[in-house]
Amino acid sequence: MTAATPTASAPPRRSDDLLATLAERVGGRLTASTVYGSAVERDGVTVIPVAAARFMLGAGSGADPRKEQEGSGGGARGDVRPAGYIELRDGHSRWVPAVQPARMLAIVLCAALAGFAIARRTG
Predict the structure, then answer these.
(1) pTM, entire model
(2) Of 102, 75, 84, which is closest to residue 35 (Cα–Cα)?
(3) Is the Cα dihedral 87, 93, 95, 96 positive or negative?
(4) Computed from CA positions of residues 97, 78, 32, 93, in that sequence, does the dihedral angle turn out positive or negative?
(5) What is the rounded CA–CA span in Å between residue 55 and residue 104?
(6) What is the share, in percent, of the chain residues with pLDDT greater than 90?
């Protein structure tokens, strides 16, 4: 019969603390109100802003006992873009997407190129 060996949990690392701090600070700022502001109610109509938020973060630490050196570092990046809004009126809801000019321009250019290609083949 073998004795059960106790499992030791890994000690917390500085990079873990750094990642937690970055996530808390960056994640707390990426909200729809960052892009639009808060929900608005006027004349029986409520408008609720909707945004797509994402963030990336990374951290690391290391040590060189021979040189008696250690260090840690990290970074984060966040991106919040308007997606549209939800309109509530008379017990009904309606989704209104945000128009993104760069995306609309790309669609128009692609459609124009396709039209030229089709016209060239048939003409």
Answers:
(1) 0.49
(2) 84
(3) negative
(4) positive
(5) 25
(6) 18
